[in-house]
Design brief:
By secondary structure, this protein is α+β, with helices and mostly antiparallel strands. It has one domain (35-249). Helix content is 29%, strand content 16%. The strands form two sheets. Strands 3-4-8-5-6-7 form a six-stranded mixed beta sheet, covered by helices on one side. It has a two-stranded antiparallel sheet with strand order 1-2. Helix 2 (48-69) packs across helix 4 (99-112). It starts with a helix and ends in a 30-residue tail after the last strand. The relative contact order is 0.15.
Length: 258
């Protein structure tokens, strides 16, 4: 009788594990680092907020790296900024065989997935690189570019925001150093967030962590922010769970709504 009970319990455990896998939940090694994938993007449990922000940090970081190192991609991004405005929807940069996406994907493959080869190669957010796109250093499962792309432009509504005009030539009249600072919306009402500074002539150190990016820090700097925007016609893009009244208030300098 005891043997039959053990077999019954074992069968229940097997069925339970199969059900969990079929729901598309990635386990990063901790019960607190699970995220449901699918049409709801990064929405769901409480840790999805951290993972959503991490994904946006990667999106901003890779955008900056791409336009630093690929002139054709840079031209496409600069041409995508509407005249007199300082933001545009990220999906405008992603379409078949355009120079920006080809370069962006190459740098994603180079940097993002390297985080999964060795945890020291991908420090936490306070280090030189953003966390892996789906959250948490040390995740042994590499992220497919197609999944990352889908979360950037299909499962979410994201836009690039440039608090200042992007400048790639030294200007004597301003204190511009040709670097790019990147960050993501903090998904709360804080007027600051951490992020990264990418260097044009980087050698072995392409970036450095910046712990406090606020309105004072970004003056006279090249800055790229990736932030959500609400779209009430898309159930993935309500973003009510974050309690943010207006995502455009973050790092607002002038004409923040577009």
């Amino acid at each position: 009788m005891r043997t039959i009970k053990y077999l019954a319990i074992l069968c229940l455990l097997i069925v339970s594990c199969e059900a969990t896998e079929s729901e598309g939940v990635i386990d990063n090694g901790s019960a607190d680092l699970k995220m449901e994938q699918g049409t709801n993007g990064f929405q769901g449990n409480k840790n999805s907020t951290e993972q959503f922000e991490s994904m946006m940090q990667w999106g901003a970081f890779l955008t900056a790296y791409t336009i630093f190192h690929d002139e054709l991609a840079r031209a496409e991004l600069l041409n995508a900024i509407p005249a007199g405005e300082n933001s545009f929807e990220l999906n405008q940069l992603f379409f078949v065989s355009n120079d920006f996406e080809l370069a962006f994907k190459a740098y994603f493959d180079l940097y993002a997935n390297s985080c999964y080869q060795s945890k020291p190669a991908c420090p936490e957010t306070a280090g030189s690189f953003p966390d892996p796109p789906l959250g948490g250093g040390g995740n042994i499962q590499a992220v497919l570019y197609s999944d990352f792309r889908a979360d950037l432009i299909q499962n979410n509504c994201l836009e690039l925001y440039f608090p200042n005009e992007l400048v790639f030539e030294q200007q004597e009249s301003k204190n511009f150093v040709i670097n790019i600072v990147t960050t993501a919306h903090p998904l709360n009402n804080n007027p600051f967030n951490n992020g990264f500074k990418l260097f044009a002539n980087h050698g072995e150190n392409p970036s450095a962590a910046v712990t406090n990016i606020d309105g004072n820090y970004i003056v006279d700097k090249n800055v790229i922010v990736l932030r959500p925007y609400q779209n009430l016609e898309d159930s993935n893009c309500y973003y009510e769970q974050f309690g943010v009244g207006d995502f455009t208030d973050f790092l607002c300098i002038l004409n923040c709504n577009g």
